[in-house]
Amino acid sequence: MDKDKFIEMVGKVAIEYYSEYNILPSLVVSQAILESGWGVKHIENNIFGIKAGPSWPGKVALRRTTEWDGTRYVVKVDKFRAYDSMEDSIKDYLKLIGGSKRYEKVKKAKDYKEAARLIYEAGYATDPKYVDKLINIIESNKLYEYDKRAEPISSWAVEAWEWGKSEGITDGRKPKTYATREQVVTMLYRIVKKITNFK
Q1: 3-state class (DSSP) for residue 159
Q2: Could you say which of 44, 87, 92, 139 is catalytic?
């Protein structure tokens, strides 16, 4: 998978679940790039380097890892979560970060710089250069553009969007993404059917 495709794959899932977890897509993509070397050095589809603690019920992979112990880098063998696909890895990462009180501040970050700092301060990584590395990846690849695509519904469209959800015109997901012709026709069909009782 080339770099552009890797970015798009991770970014697409991050945008899809932004409204549920409030994790900036730029942070998600930059961590995936950094932790997996653009998806090349993943651990059994684990592209975030998430370790497998006692509560993890899924598959596990043992790997050597380099950690910063506060004074120096040390190499050790550790357990990591293993997944059937990279998409599963992204979804699990979002669930982990989005559902943990430990990372509560990350969900409230105003921008990617703050998000990078807060996730480091919450203890996600031990590398003292982690924040700078994430910011550099985001800026050099313009990943902040993904954050714009994940912004909440415009204030002027809230009423219409809520109506569309309540009437079954839309499923209420991904308000900022482009619609396919199939989706547009389906929404028009539902509107016409509702107005005219078309059968």
Answers
A1: helix
A2: 92
